[in-house]
Write a structure and sequence with these properties.
heterodimer, A: 250 residues, mainly alpha, two-stranded antiparallel sheet, 77% helix, B: 287 residues, alpha/beta, Rossmann fold, 6-stranded mixed beta sheet, 4-stranded antiparallel beta sheet
């Protein structure tokens, strides 16, 4: 999670308009879901990986890691799709060509879709996406809550890590038994601290005249109309290649 | 004398549950002064500061701004906080927005400025704190010193007449402290009244015009820094040491190394420059 956040804020495309990155990612996602998967899927994966790694400068390892986590859930499902279980004549487990093809299609589609999202989260700060959603008309209260949660997750995790280290320094995790006890105390303590922190933050906000909304300036992104032309070109090329190759194969 | 900018009269406060925190505090803060609220841990410094911008409402007594009792309704508090800014001790309690520039823009926008005006204020405040380069940086990717400066910038952007700083030097390294004091000097020169809580007597002696010494929720003494911090019995009662420079100066005086009527320098730098300049009084050591 922190690798994602670090990349999102520090990659070369971090300060590009989030709408550009959303258009590319969601456009590719739409292609991956609608066009023949066996040809389009690998293309989408290649383009998104290239955009993230070569374009935005995201580390290969980070990109692979973001794909690997959901892939761990995907693989067992694909195995179940590919396997045909027959109970008529005793228990028979086998592979049929159709089932394998189904599994391959689902797999290609899923990996391509995951690559689109991986590109988006690795290149775009969460708060940029929220700002776009705010402009799209999502209710202010929801957006503000999401902004605050985003900010406080980091404060919370930082404090949790510090508290855990402090416990460990006093042998809180020396044995499994103590570990369980320490973790319980940590959770209880963090809950209390979160309440206190919330109250203090209220004081800080009130000191700056907070009344109803948490209004702040939105970031300025440079407008790049040509970027959309490039994105459109890439989307068309992938769509054409995906359908064309599928036609050749058939 | 002109009307003090903040005037605290017979102020008492008990935390919910009846635990007394402040009792019978009364003092007036002159416009454009630098006041150090000095006290040991738990003496009531933070609680007092929280009364000076209306965060806490006294259980007894009043706080006056420009001679007028302040209102605790929405409008009164808003007007009050536009003029009196508060910087909390832990910047983590104050920074809530995703990036530095966004966080700093919060106060100005609440004060009703337009986006363009707020943007100007953000630039101004970030430049004043020397962190203009961090404008787009996410708040969770800052060092502690940077967070502290971002938190102060968030208040500066509101251009308050009075700046309340709760333990502003806590956790800062020497370089960070130097930068902070330089910034505060700039604000002071521009006419801002500064009130900082601290338990650092050396800092108070070097920096403050006035000192208010708290102990156990009571105000022991309020007055010019030089006079208050030379009061040994008072500092002992407040469980505070004397300023090191003053201790050293008094020892030099007791040893006949400086003239009995020579005024003590206020800071280490002041002391060193006296010695370095070959202060005639030091020449007598050789005799």
């Amino acid at each position: 999670m922190f690798a994602i956040d670090r990349n999102a804020w520090t990659n070369r495309w971090s300060r590009r308009h989030p709408l550009e990155k959303l258009t590319l990612a969601l456009g590719m996602l739409a292609l991956a879901v609608t066009l023949p998967p066996l040809t389009t899927g690998p293309l989408v994966l290649t383009v998104m990986a290239a955009a993230a790694i070569l374009g935005a400068g995201v580390g290969v390892r980070d990109f692979a890691l973001v794909l690997a986590v959901p892939a761990a859930f995907l693989l067992p499902s694909l195995a179940l799709i590919a396997l045909a279980v027959d109970l008529d004549d005793g228990l028979r487990v086998g592979l049929s060509a159709a089932a394998v093809r189904d599994a391959a299609e689902v797999g290609a589609r899923s990996v391509a879709a995951m690559a689109c999202l991986a590109f988006l989260v690795l290149t775009t700060p969460v708060t940029d996406v929220l700002t776009v959603l705010r402009r799209a008309g999502l209710p202010t209260a929801v957006i503000e809550l999401m902004f605050l949660i985003y900010r406080l997750v980091f404060v919370f995790v930082e404090r949790a890590v510090a508290a855990r280290r402090a416990q460990a320094a006093r042998l809180g995790y020396a044995t499994r038994r103590q570990g369980v006890r320490s973790l319980g105390l940590l959770a209880a303590g963090l809950f209390q601290r979160a309440l206190v922190q919330g109250r203090r933050m209220e004081t800080g906000l009130a000191a700056r005249g907070h009344i109803d909304d948490l209004r702040v300036l939105s970031p300025d992104w440079p407008a790049a109309p040509r970027a959309y032309a490039h994105i459109a070109t890439v989307l068309c090329a992938v769509a054409a290649a995906g359908t064309g190759l599928d036609g050749l194969a058939a | 004398m002109t009307v003090p900018i903040l005037d605290v009269r017979d102020l008492s406060y008990a935390y919910p549950g009846g635990i007394p925190a402040l009792s019978g505090i009364g003092f007036a803060i002159g416009r454009g002064r630098k006041l150090a609220v000095l006290g040991a841990n738990g003496s009531g410094k933070t609680t007092l500061l929280l009364h000076l911008n209306g965060t806490l409402r006294p259980t007894g007594g009043t706080v006056r701004l420009d001679g007028e009792p302040v209102g605790y309704d929405r409008r009164g508090l808003a007007a009050w906080r536009r003029r009196v800014g508060l910087v909390l001790q832990d910047p983590e309690d104050q920074l809530f927005a995703a990036t530095v520039a966004q966080d700093v823009s919060f106060g100005p926008l609440n004060a009703g400025l337009t986006d363009a005006e707020a943007r100007g204020r953000v630039d101004e405040a970030l430049t004043a704190m020397g962190i203009a380069g961090l404008a787009g940086r996410p708040t969770h990717m800052l060092s502690f010193g940077q967070k502290r400066r971002a938190a102060i910038a968030g208040i500066l952007a509101m251009r308050p007449d009075v700046l309340l700083l709760d333990e502003p030097t806590a956790g800062l390294d020497a370089a960070g402290l130097g930068q902070l004091l330089a910034t505060l000097d700039g604000l002071h020169a521009a006419g801002t009244t500064l009130i900082a809580s601290t338990h650092d007597v050396d800092l108070a002696y070097a920096w403050a015009d006035d000192v208010a010494v708290l102990d156990g929720g009571r105000l022991l003494r309020h007055g010019g820094a030089e006079a208050v911090l030379a009061d040994r019995a008072l500092l002992a009662e407040a469980r505070l040491p004397g300023p090191f420079v003053l201790d050293l100066w008094q020892a030099l005086r007791a040893g006949g190394l400086v003239a009995p009527d020579a005024r003590s320098p206020r800071s280490r730098a002041g002391l060193l420059s006296l010695i370095g300049a070959g202060h005639p009084l030091f020449g007598r050591t050789g005799e």
